[in-house]
Write a structure and sequence with these properties.
It catalyses: L-tyrosyl-[protein] + ATP = O-phospho-L-tyrosyl-[protein] + ADP + H(+). This is non-specific protein-tyrosine kinase. It is an enzyme of class 2 (transferase). It is found in: Cell inner membrane. Keywords: ATP-binding, Cell inner membrane, Cell membrane, Coiled coil, Kinase, Membrane, Nucleotide-binding, Transferase, Transmembrane, Transmembrane helix, Tyrosine-protein kinase. It is a single chain. With about 750 residues, the protein is α/β, with parallel strands linked by helices. It contains 30 helices and twelve strands. The strands form two sheets. The protein has an eight-stranded mixed beta sheet with strand order 5-12-11-6-10-7-9-8, with helices on both faces. Helix 2 crosses helix 16, helix 10 runs antiparallel to helix 15 and helix 11 packs antiparallel against helix 14. About 25% of the residues are buried.
């Protein structure tokens, strides 16, 4: 039947026959998760309780541990004491992270741990050495023969190794953020012991750091001292080599580091320059006065003529005579006797003046000769010393090389001497770049175990284990639970569910003798729908009737087969109740027990029957003698009285005799309900399938695998084509609530369950 598929397809179409928008795809189905939690909450709660109990037991038996903390800071302030005294201090800086990490490794080193052990004598502390707890080695230690011959030193070394292991395993060292602060903590069962060890660790680390600094400074001082002695000798040897070379090569040094010949050459050059200047000046004076004398220039003067009294007197007389001659010539004419006389005097005075200038020129000549002689002498001396200096050039190159070597040794010696003084100063100042800023005190409460946190963790682990078990159970729960699973996995219509009948009672007249042709149910479960016509079970069977009616297009009675994949799924109960419900509604209904191998309907309704369908098929017994009736509903029942195993049951059901019997029954009844054997057990249902109009599949809720139903039902195309739907039987209604998801019938079951109440 494909009508539900067509309806669902039409609902998925848009208003014009086009496909509607795709539903929103969700990565996480929260409804499914919540439903799983509702179904498995008992498992999860049980696991939480179990793990909480384990956590409580663990916390009750665990020895509390106390952690004491001390803090150190890598401080550069202490280094300033030495930095102020030495300008080029070479010290350890704490500016980079690698330095801090190196200090952390130093704190965790075996040397510091051994120093703490020796300081506190931890190998003799029973509270400390007993931290490792009970072990088989401790119990069997006295029985170990090898220990009998060990020396006390070996035992002490082993105890120290054990103490070191305990100490390092219970110590925690970490940097505080990006600061220069180092937090050091120690954990032990004793609060006082934890604080003592933490403080001892801090002080031991500071002492180790100071000793390391002092030792490095001492080694540097010793090395510098040896190096200074070597450099001192090298300086002396280089100076001695310089002096010896000067002596051997006549390179006598004057002041300012110059050689004597170099100083003399410098002085001669200076004197030569002065002599050349004097010669040039004398030559200029001489040339000037010679020019005046040769040109007879009476108006020209020289410096020495001005300061000469004779020249000055003659010039005054000359000028006086010249003035008078000019006055007389102006008054009496140039030919006047007095003017002529005065001109003669002027000539005499002029001659005397030039004679005096000639004497001065001779003195200038003498000065020029002296200057030239002096210049010549100096030039000869300079040339002589220059040749000497040129000859000593190669020797001076070697001298300068020796002097540079000597200067290098002197500078190196001074540098090492300064470093040696700095090292001695560092050695005399007991300071380090670290100090304690927080002393460890005995903690007031244990640091571990953290009881609230551990209880939460145990409960969380219990929740995770419970969720894992629940998830595994959900994964393994591959059974039919909801109608959606029926539609999705089988492609068949879901007809409804039949609740599990828990109130099963025998009829009130079960002790009375039964009439051979009267149906007598074994218990009230086989007429539940007759007694409860408004129940959900009855409503499900009505849905099956409607589906069968819609699928029937012929004439006569509607033959409806009720089948299951496996035995024990309740098909007989469904068959009996469906037949009883149809009969109660006024339809002529026959219930046929076609399970000739295991006639469950006969045992449930007519276990007192003496003859049935087998007698009709094999002995041609009339139907009116084999039929049984229900006096209340007028339901007819054709039992299967099996007194011995029937090996050819499928042949009987597919025989022409069975066909004639079915034709007779079709003419006399409106509905024929056939209780078929399970599909997975025998082939009888396939043999009788041509005589059936429709089939109702009964599946036990929560126990039948979809794979079994598919394999058994889909293996026969005719049975699959005639199947009008599936009924989920024996449904636990309380558990069914846990499998309903939003939008499903199971989810809204509580809202329409009021329709199934009879009161």
């Amino acid at each position: 039947m494909r009508v539900p598929d067509q309806l669902s397809f039409q609902q998925a179409q848009g208003p014009f026959g086009q496909a509607g928008d795709d539903p929103e795809i969700t990565l996480i189905d929260f409804d499914a998760i919540l439903a799983m939690i509702r179904r498995q909450w008992l498992i999860m709660a049980a696991m939480i309780v179990v793990f909480a109990a384990l956590g409580f037991a663990y916390l009750s038996t665990t020895v509390p541990q106390f952690t004491a903390y001390t803090s150190l800071i890598m401080d550069r302030g202490n280094s300033g004491v030495i930095s102020d005294m030495t300008e080029n201090q070479s010290r350890v800086t704490v500016d980079d992270e690698a330095t801090i990490l190196s200090q952390l490794e130093i704190i965790k080193s075996d040397s510091v741990a051994d120093a703490v052990i020796d300081k506190l004598n931890l190998t003799q502390n029973e509270a400390f050495m007993g931290v490792s707890g009970f072990s088989i080695g401790k119990l069997l230690g006295p029985l170990n023969i090898a220990n009998w011959f060990r020396s006390e030193e070996d035992v002490a070394e082993d105890n120290k190794t054990i103490a070191r292991t305990i100490l390092l395993s219970n110590m925690a060292v970490a940097r505080s953020g990006q600061s220069y602060v180092i937090n050091l903590g120690y954990t032990s069962p004793s609060a006082q012991l934890s604080s003592d060890i933490a403080n001892a660790y801090a002080s031991t680390y500071l002492l180790d750091k100071f000793n390391a600094r002092f030792e490095s400074t001492r080694r540097a001082s010793e090395w510098l001292e040896q190096r200074l002695a070597e450099l001192k000798q090298q300086v002396m040897d280089s100076d001695l080599a310089v002096q010896k070379f000067r002596r051997d090569n006549g390179l006598i040094a004057a002041k300012d580091g110059l050689l004597v010949n170099e100083q003399q050459l410098s002085e001669l050059n200076s004197s030569l320059i002065v002599a050349q200047a004097d010669t040039a000046r004398a030559q200029a004076k001489y040339n000037r006065i010679q020019t005046i004398v040769n040109e007879r220039r009476s108006d020209a003067l020289v410096t020495d003529a001005l300061v000469n009294s004779i020249s000055a007197n003659l010039r005054d007389k000359y000028l006086t005579a010249s003035r008078k001659q000019a006055e007389i010539s102006q008054k009496f004419g140039e030919n006047h006797v007095q003017a002529a006389r005065l001109r003669g005097e002027m000539e005499q005075y002029e001659q005397q003046m030039f004679d005096e200038l000639g004497r001065i020129a001779e003195s200038y000549q003498s000065e020029l000769d002296v200057a030239r002689a002096k210049q010549k002498s100096l030039e000869e001396n300079v040339a002589s010393l220059t040749s000497v200096s040129a000859m000593a050039g190669e020797t001076q190159v070697q001298l300068r090389e020796l002097e540079r070597s000597a200067d290098s040794y002197k500078n190196l010696y001074q540098t090492f001497l300064a470093r040696y003084q700095e090292a001695m100063q560092q050695q005399s100042f007991p300071v380090t770049e670290a100090r304690v800023i927080t002393q460890a005190t005995p903690p007031l409460k244990p640091s571990k175990p953290n009881k609230p946190m551990l209880m939460v963790l145990f409960a969380f682990f219990g929740l995770m284990v419970g969720a894992s078990i629940g998830g595994f159970r959900e994964f393994r729960d591959r059974f039919f639970r909801t109608g959606d699973q029926v539609r999705d996995q089988l492609g068949l219509e879901y007809l409804g569910l039949a609740p599990l009948i828990t109130d099963v009672r025998a009829p009130a007249n079960s002790s009375e003798p039964a009439h051979p042709n009267v149906i007598r149910p074994l218990n009230n479960a086989y007429r539940y729908c007759v007694d409860h016509p408004l129940s959900q079970f009855a409503e499900t069977l009505r849905s099956a009737k409607i589906a069968a009616d819609l699928s029937f297009s012929g004439e006569g009675a509607k033959v409806i087969g009720v089948v299951s994949a496996l035995p024990g799924e309740g098909k007989t109960t469904v068959s009996a109740n469906l037949a009883g419900l149809l009969a109660m509604q006024g339809a002529r209904t026959l219930l046929l027990d076609a399970d000739l191998r295991n006639p469950g309907a006969t045992r449930a309704l007519g276990q007192h029957a003496e003859r049935g369908i087998l007698e009709t098929l094999t002995n041609n017994e009339p139907l009116d003698q084999t039929l049984m009736f229900d006096p209340q509903t007028r339901l007819a029942f054709l039992p299967a009285v099996v007194r011995r195993r029937v090996p050819h049951s499928s042949d009987l059901l597919a025989s022409p005799v069975m066909g004639r019997v079915m034709d007779t029954l079709r003419r006399n009844f409106d509905y024929i309900i056939v209780d078929l054997p399970p599909l997975g057990a025998v082939v009888d249902a396939r043999a009788i399938s041509p005589m059936l109009d429709s089939i109702v599949m009964v599946v036990k809720w929560g126990e039948t695998s979809p794979a079994v139903v598919r394999n058994t039902l889909f293996s026969d195309a005719e049975l699959h084509a005639k199947c009008v739907g599936v009924i989920l039987n024996k449904v636990d209604m309380e558990k069914m609530k846990l499998y309903g998801q939003h939008g499903s019938n199971e989810y809204y079951h509580s809202q329409f369950s009021s329709y199934y109440h009879e009161k």
